[in-house]
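Morning F.,

Quick status update on the modeling queue. The single chain you submitted on Monday has been processed. Sequence for confirmation:
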Amino acid sequence: MRVACPDCGETVSVPEGATSGDLVECPNCAGHALRLRWEGGRWTATLAHRVSCPSCDDVLTLPDDAKAGDTISCCGGRYRLTFEYGAFAAEEP
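Structure tokens below.
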């Protein structure tokens, strides 16, 4: 099974045993993860936005409903999400 990256159009293999909500990497899009969904008898994919923690540089995958102004937690800190130029960032409040 394969799915198309919604950003670049590259076809990406769906791993055997995948379930709806799993993440796969796009080989063309640096750092883009795709969130798999089983819908209508076929696989679809949406971009799974990610941010780096400003304190420890861990990469966090955001939920589908994330929006600018939301807060996230990592390594004991809380950070506010911003969204510019099509990407999220985590900043100190």
